[in-house]
Amino acid sequence: MKNAYAIIIRNGLILLVRRPGMPVWDLPGGALLPNEKERDGMQRLIKELLSFDSTVEDLIGIYTKEYHEEITYVYKVQETVSQSRMESQDYGAFNFFDIHNLPLNIFPDRHRQIKDYLTGRYPVRWRFRQNRWLARIEKFITKKGGL
User: Which value, in Å, is the radius of gyration of the alpha carbons in the chain?
Assistant: First the structure.
């Protein structure tokens, strides 16, 4: 499964979003369609999820997880029209935050990805490590239909 997420900066602030019923902030983005190019998919997701046009600029990094068949692409994305109006039926909330003072309840992997953006040394290839027993338990639960 391929995912793409955007780092969108406006006036030195980073855009974070929350899905309905989830208490965790995240970067905007989500799953890519099968056989969809990553940059095209990122642009499509921004248009569908936030209702504004964008330009996909730089690849920040490619992230994988041990014991998972998941790959995540993180891009720097620029609004086509500055200060675009955002509307979303998919997100319960969206807000701009100080990039150096992120909220505590942010999705854990995003800390690393935002840190990689701040270093300016990208693209990065990173593999998140996970306890193999935890991965096996998650896989077992998923197969049983619990998750």
Answer: 16
